[in-house]
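Shipment paperwork, digital attachment
Item: protein structure file
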Amino acid sequence: MKCFGIDVTTREQIALSFNETIVSAEPLISPVDRIPFLAPGWIDLQVNGYAGVDYNLPTADHEDIARSIRIQFSHGVTRFYPTVITGPPENMRAALRNLASAKEKLLEGQAMEGFHVEGPHISPEDGPRGAHPRQWVRPPDFEEFRRWQEAARGNIRLVTVAPEWPGCPGYIERLVREGVAVSIGHTAATAAQISDAVAAGATLSTHLGNGAHPVLPRHPNYIWEQLAEDRLSASFIADGVHLPPAFLKVAIRAKGVLRSILITDAVMPAGCSPGRYELGEREIELTSDGRVVLASENRLAGSTLRMDRGIENLMRLAGLSLIEAITMATKNPARIGRITARQRGLVPGDRADFVEFRYDEATNSIQVEKTWMSGRLVYSR
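Attachment content:
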């Protein structure tokens, strides 16, 4: 297979030859008019649900999951981590088991690169706990992780924890030895507890700036501590709702683009009409301005962000260049999420996961034209 486009990294016009992996990326001898940009396919490490499908629901229908993945393909996503959040032990295992089955049986299942478990080992406090149900928050338990991983058929690749729990550094060390990346999130940890978690192997902060108390001490506080910790990368929800532009801009400057990741934290109503929906045991509302809130508390409960719009927002709200924004959606999550053969870009040997898109520099807008996954065309506009 072969396609032509402008390499987003070099701005050269190239001919990309590929099968399941990229064979070559050679400069064109003669320029071609109106060819699209080419970039590695987007990677989203945190998707709780999409297009009316809740990945936390143990009975989520496989064809509905497939449909939700196809819609993500249309936004340029080629790999993602379906994310299971805090819930009853049996429900979490059943959701992971259902996702593992879907991954194996569906043609689209290849896009589910691995699974992210966010909670239940998070802060029980209002604020840091976010929209997670308090009654199911519980301390770290490695035997519980083993039960998750068995249900998930070995697919868990990322776990979010709050490091203030007693014994958490030992728990983190054991997960890292299992080849699982550990992220700090939904936490009220002290500076010492964050430092201990990083020393134990934590490498990421989950949606930094969210899942926090509404009012914090000027200093010290757990957001500053994570921003200042150079061994931690950070993920950000760039939807214009979860984070104001000033924080997003400053936080990315503090971490540096190479340690920053774009995520959607999308939930089941993403891509749906405004209204009320059931999310596990909670009733949520998708408002007319695109916010997802707990119906009873008007507190944010995930997002409706698309990855292509997130890339646009990084340029518009945080002042990033196109290549910086795309790096936060491709190479960075591949590296931090430990996704093999996706960390170098459009180079021979990496997977043929890429996006053809149009880019309007005047408006910083993107239009996805085609999405390829492992050399297979999975979306064409």
